[in-house]
UniProtKB/TrEMBL annotation:
Residues 1-23 are annotated as: Disordered. The keyword Cytoplasm does not apply. This is GTP cyclohydrolase 1. Residues 61-237 form the GTP cyclohydrolase I domain. Pfam families: GTP_cyclohydroI (PF01227). Its EC number is 3.5.4.16. It is an enzyme of class 3 (hydrolase). PROSITE patterns: GTP_CYCLOHYDROL_1_1, GTP_CYCLOHYDROL_1_2. The keyword RNA-binding does not apply. It comes from Vanderwaltozyma polyspora (strain ATCC 22028 / DSM 70294 / BCRC 21397 / CBS 2163 / NBRC 10782 / NRRL Y-8283 / UCD 57-17) (Kluyveromyces polysporus). GO terms for biological process: folic acid biosynthetic process; tetrahydrobiopterin biosynthetic process; tetrahydrofolate biosynthetic process. GTP cyclohydrolase 1 is the first enzyme in the biosynthetic pathway leading to folic acid.
């Protein structure tokens, strides 16, 4: 990118290029323009018009044709004629979280002043994401809890927040932390806790091929680091009726 096209928002390093003593805590989850840790390329993508997006689909489709040919397939046969275009459009959808503005597209005006200081939990939020190591799916459920500090967030926005981060190339550990830190940054709550349970196809369908296995990750911030608060949260998650 030339200097003439430099973006107005100054950015130094991404969280993955820094090595702080506490990962991610040196980078604000929500940036000045409302995005959240996107690459420079995703900012360009977010501003594309219909014609530019069409050209992007074409470039991805051309690359997919090469992959299919290298796999030994005939890209001219009936079943694969439209596959490159379909795949390109699917990949843009699977990664649409890159071009989502966290404040304008997700949170909007759903922050409310409320005199409530007890735990709020939304559990069993279904997510679908792509493992950045193999570009194959992992999927499961997210459980989010927080203790408000004079502000609450519309409940559906918790699901939208999880969806935004999931619709990127991810690792489950980072996804868990990003959701928790963004919520902390937006709400300034007393505490935040996020738990994700997911099945990874890179583990189930290749490599060790252990079907039925699942991965559980958590991120607890603020008051949830206290043992009693964390135990209450985990206890509530384990109950099917409260």
């Amino acid at each position: 990118m030339s200097k003439d096209n430099d973006l107005s928002i100054p950015r130094t390093e991404t969280p993955l290029k820094t090595k702080p003593s506490q990962p991610y805590t040196l980078i604000a989850p929500v940036e000045a323009d409302g995005f959240s840790w996107p690459s420079l390329g995703s900012r360009v993508r977010a501003d594309e018009d219909e014609e530019q997006e069409k050209q992007r689909v074409g470039r991805i489709a051309d690359a997919v044709k090469v992959i299919l040919e290298e796999l030994g397939e005939d890209v001219t046969r009936e079943g694969l004629l439209d596959t490159p275009q379909r795949y390109a459009k699917a990949m843009l959808y699977f990664t649409k979280g890159y071009q989502t503005n966290i404040m304008d597209d997700v949170i909007k005006n759903a922050l409310f002043e409320e005199d409530h200081d007890e735990m709020v939990i939304v559990r069993d939020i279904e997510i679908f994401s792509l493992c950045e190591h193999h570009l194959v799916p992992f999927f499961g459920k997210v459980h989010i809890g927080y203790i408000p500090n004079k502000k609450v967030l519309g409940l559906s926005k918790l699901a939208r927040l999880a969806e935004m981060y999931a619709r990127r190339l991810q690792v489950q550990e980072r996804l868990t932390k990003q959701i928790a830190m963004a919520l902390r940054d937006i709400l300034k709550p007393i505490g935040v806790a996020v738990v994700i349970e997911a099945t990874h196809m890179c583990m189930v369908s290749r490599g060790i091929q252990k079907t039925g296995s699942s991965t559980v990750t958590s991120c607890v911030l603020g008051a949830f680091r206290a043992h009693k608060t964390r135990e209450e949260f985990l206890s509530l998650l384990s109950k099917r009726s409260i």
